[in-house]
Design a protein that fits this description.
By secondary structure, the protein is α+β, with helices and mostly antiparallel strands. It is built from 4 helices and 6 strands. The chain is globular and about 35 Å long. The C terminus is likely disordered.
Length: 176
């Protein structure tokens, strides 16, 4: 398992969870955002946590539908877990075994920044091969109190000024 948590393992959380199975299709990205927003409202999560989680889920879902080289009909599984500490863990599982990698996009590139955003905005994140089948899971945990994603992207966070992939943790291996 690749893990970017400082202690080298994913934090354990008592859970309240929901799971959605979505087709590997571009429309599933928007659908997953809507489902997460509705669930976050039910859980009464702060707007900043919800906004960050929705943005990061959108990035992971986009990667899963764009890059997974699998046969038609395979679904993407989204699992959202709310811990007793009010941290939200979101995981996206697809049937492709290739682990995501950081890209070094130019300012003109329209894509390639997803994992950089996940690194900047998540408290921790990681990847792991599926234990019960083919594929992988990419997950993140939101901090209990997070800055707005737009504030971070516009200089509200000093982390947003980094020029490339993070230097902490172990970056995922393979392409994406």
């Amino acid at each position: 398992m690749t893990d970017n948590h400082p202690q080298g393992r994913e934090p354990r959380m008592p859970e309240e969870a929901v799971v959605w199975q979505l087709p590997r299709h571009p429309r599933s990205v928007g659908r997953s955002r809507a489902l997460l927003r509705a669930q976050a409202a039910d859980w009464k999560l702060p707007d900043e946590v919800t906004d960050t989680a929705v943005l990061l889920l959108s990035e992971l879902m986009t990667n899963a539908y764009r890059h997974a080289r699998v046969s038609p009909g395979r679904e993407i599984r989204v699992r959202c877990v709310l811990g007793d500490d009010r941290r939200l863990r979101v995981s996206v599982t697809d049937a492709d075994e290739s682990m995501p990698t950081f890209r070094n996009p130019s300012p003109d590139d329209e894509s390639g920044r997803g994992l950089i955003l996940v690194t900047l905005l998540a408290e921790t994140w990681g990847t792991e091969p599926r234990t019960d089948g083919v594929g992988k899971t990419v997950w993140f945990v939101t901090p209990a109190d997070v800055p707005s994603p737009t504030a971070s992207a516009h200089g509200g966070s000093t982390a947003a000024t980094c020029a490339g992939p993070p230097t902490h943790g172990t970056p995922p291996s393979s392409r994406r």
